[in-house]
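[job 0412] stage=fold_complex status=start
inputs:
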Amino acid sequence: MERPARRRAPAAISRPIAERRGDADEPTLGVLEGFIGFHLRLAQDASFRSFAQRAGRHDLRPGRFAAMMIIHDNPGINQTALGRLIARDKSTITPLLQGLERQGLVVRRAAANDGRSFVLTLTPAGEATLRELLAQAREHDRKLDEIIGDRKDEFIRLLQRIVQDIG
Amino acid sequence: MERPARRRAPAAISRPIAERRGDADEPTLGVLEGFIGFHLRLAQDASFRSFAQRAGRHDLRPGRFAAMMIIHDNPGINQTALGRLIARDKSTITPLLQGLERQGLVVRRAAANDGRSFVLTLTPAGEATLRELLAQAREHDRKLDEIIGDRKDEFIRLLQRIVQDIG
DNA sequence: TATTGTTATACTCTATAACTATA
DNA sequence: TATAGTTATAGAGTATAACAATA
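[job 0412] stage=fold_complex status=done
writing structure:
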């Protein structure tokens, strides 16, 4: 018996899965399966969605939360430095802070020593909101901790190394 | 001598770094430092940027590349199944494929057995382009491999577990 | 009734460039 | 000249909902 003729895929990439498993089978990720970058993307996407869902009720998005957290930890920080910490351009920071200020969570005061920059602090309402958000974020990250298990430190170190070395 | 009075941060979160290290110091990530989700976000962002920069010359974006890769590995797949594999809604797939089709990289034929769906395949030009893109992607991922080292399999397994379990 | 794909629409996130004010 | 911040603008990427065609 002769197998039906099929188009051959270029050997340089990989043979189509259909040749090996039959057309009706589950689709496959193929080569992508071995790509760190691909899995990194999917994992971040899944984590983000889970976080956003939990946070939806509190108008919490990762960017807002991270900004508030950093202002809390670095009272008096300016916008450019904040942007550097979360790897975003200053033009991205402006509307983010405008939103937080409009909601009364953040105050921007003119810096005493530099007429160009603003000094950022959380208002008492901002601190209170941050406490709630942090509780949510901790729940989220506790779930990630459970998934990662006892290799958390190493896992984070690898992620940091990606940030530093991928440039 | 009396230390200057400072606003106390709520004990429930953490003390401002400025209290511990002085206002002039480098800003800190504080609590975020221990959050897997935060580092996941930064790492994916850095990886994405590096990939996009390398790819810019070839009009390669992660989404386009992943779609072509999957069509290559699963010739005859339809749009909905493709969307499932990369975790995107079908309405997101439509314009993506229209772009690839307009460039002559992908063909959509009516499915023989189902009048609703399209059968996706790469054109010869698409296969050729994919080969180039794959070379780029491999370089990118080789860099990630170097960074991650001999724990690659475990690292990918953890990322996959996040996707599966975070829900 | 359920599913495939398209369209209309809208929203979030982001950056570049040009600008003002200050250093 | 360089830096902090704003604004105008534009572009990727994404989803929801309503729809037509088909199963």
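[job 0412] summary: Chain B touches chain A through 75 residues (CB under 8 Å).
[job 0412] exit 0
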